[in-house]
Amino acid sequence: xxxxxxxxxxxVTTENIFPIIKKFLYSDHEIFLRELVSNxxxxxxxxxxxxxxxxxxxxxxxxxxxxxxxxxxxxxxxSDRGVGLTADEIEKYINQxxxxxxxxxxxxxxxxxxxxxxxxxxxxxxxxxVSKKVEIITKSWKEGxxxxxxxxxxxxxYTLIEVQKETRGTDVILHMDEEGKEFLxxxxxDSLLKKYCRxxxxxxxxxxxxxxxxGKSIELEEDNIINNTNPLWVRKPSELTDEDxxxxxxxxxxxxxxxxxxxxxxxxxxxxxxxxxxFPKVKSGIDLQKNKIQLYCNQVYVTDxxxxxxxxxxxxxxxxxxxxxxxxxxxxxxxxxxxxxxxxSTYITKKVSDRLDDIFKNSRLQxxxxxxxxxxxxxxxxxxxxxxxxxxxxxxLLENTDKKFFTLDEYKTLIEGNQTDKDKTIIYLYTTNxxxxxxxxxxxxxxxxxxxxxxxxxxxxxxxxxxxKLEKTRFVRVDADVIDNLIKKSENKEVKLTEEERKILVETxxxxxxxxxxxxxxxGFEHLGEKTTPITITQNEFMRRMKEMAGMQSGMNFxxxxxxxxxxTVNLDSPLVKKIDADKENTKSIVGxxxxxxxxxxxxxxxxxxxxxxxxxxxxxx
Length: 622
Known about the structure:
Blueprint: E1 6-9, H1 17-25, H2 31-52, E2 65-70, E3 75-80, H3 87-95, H4 105-109, H5 113-120, E4 131-139, E5 147-152, E6 157-163, E7 169-176, H6 186-196, E8 204-213, E9 216-225, H7 242-252, E10 261-267, E11 273-279, E12 292-297, E13 300-303, E14 318-322, H8 339-362, H9 364-369, H10 371-384, H11 386-392, E15 397-399, E16 405-407, H12 408-415, E17 426-431, H13 438-446, E18 451-453, H14 459-469, E19 473-477, H15 483-486, H16 499-510, E20 519-526, E21 535-539, H17 541-550, H18 557-560, E22 564-571, H19 575-582, H20 587-601, H21 607-621
């Protein structure tokens, strides 16, 4: 019991603690409100616990936590009706910052404020980032204990006196300094409460409800409660409907489309974790946003940077994760290394793969309908996460040019009879653009080959992954070579040209190639049959794939800076090519026309060369 005004020094071994807190935490100074409201929630929940074990009896009254601003006095107050504090408890929990026995904490941690905060539990002291003075007026739930007032101006000195307070609980009053004036603005506090406190388990009151009437805002008598105390993730999945999940998604993301589906996380051993993860729709390509998963700790918002907790590929998902077992410092913004984090990451990966597998097995048609959105997540996961890749091999799909879907096993069974080359390697032909590569796809289909559509931005990496996983398997784009070389069943017919003949033909065709920006052409000769086109332009699979991947990731600039290499294969069996030798007078015009047609079919004839080609053909038909 305090019989008179008591003064003392806060139990730290330096007078520099407050300037350090202000300096190092200033960039994140809004956290003070989250910390104070979280403390108020803790005090209220402790009271509820005491009631449950019958240590506290009687009517508890209204347990709402209230935040109020007095612009005239320059104060912000956080009030609760929780357990309150005795003078002895203030001495233990407020005055002894370093009571845990770290007399040299400043010298050890002065270069890392996060370590200071995390090690010593300085949540309350974040209030000094924005205040020139802080008061605590508190009354314990214990009978016969007087209310006390603690006051500190940011120096190590404090005062503690007995005061009159009618109700149980605590008022924390912050006298804002110049840098904290922004926190006396109603809109600023409203936005922070909605950011950090919107799902706290105790009602948070900030002002009165506002109603718009006749173009004016009218303040009502009803309290403005800013939070949902019973969010979806703390409820049992068996109690929830699809409508509940979609409504909650729209509460989290007001302008988002209805998600594809969701996963409700709920585990209490060997760690505690709840949450809901949503698979968003993907409109086109890799139209995705990371950092859409919100991390909570006992319903207190922490961060939306969840790397380390959620596997990299699942940061593309949306939703909420809540775990008291994820170690956080007092600013609740930095994850510390801990074995639980790895366990949680592994668990989430398994839950996601199990859910996808379940949908595939029980609703394959639905799975196929959503594949255009799902494949980005699944491909990204298979590329970056080995364990997920192993599980996903059962349900990842391949789509062909006829818009039919196959599992890896189904597709292998379909093509291995006709698309196995002379070295016993199964060749997976694919197109990245069915319209632009139509001629090559058509030639492949004439051979009864099946062609996949691989038009996603991750597909190059995905194919590399599958080539590592599947034995004797190779992916080759339909325009990577002439059709007989794509799936080589036997040795090609020998090309019988003397060195001189080859040299003359190479020079003849090279001289007909107009300038094509950032491109090199190699002339080759093959016997491809009379019905095959006179000239086929192809790109080496490896070089093209490496160059495309170079555009997506650093460290591959060597490939990215190289010119595109094309092979121009001349079909020596073509009647038009044979005509070159027979008609020496028109050789130049024939070769020029054949080269331009080949370039045109590949979208490589442009500008002046294209204009000349058009004029020449108009003259031919005039």
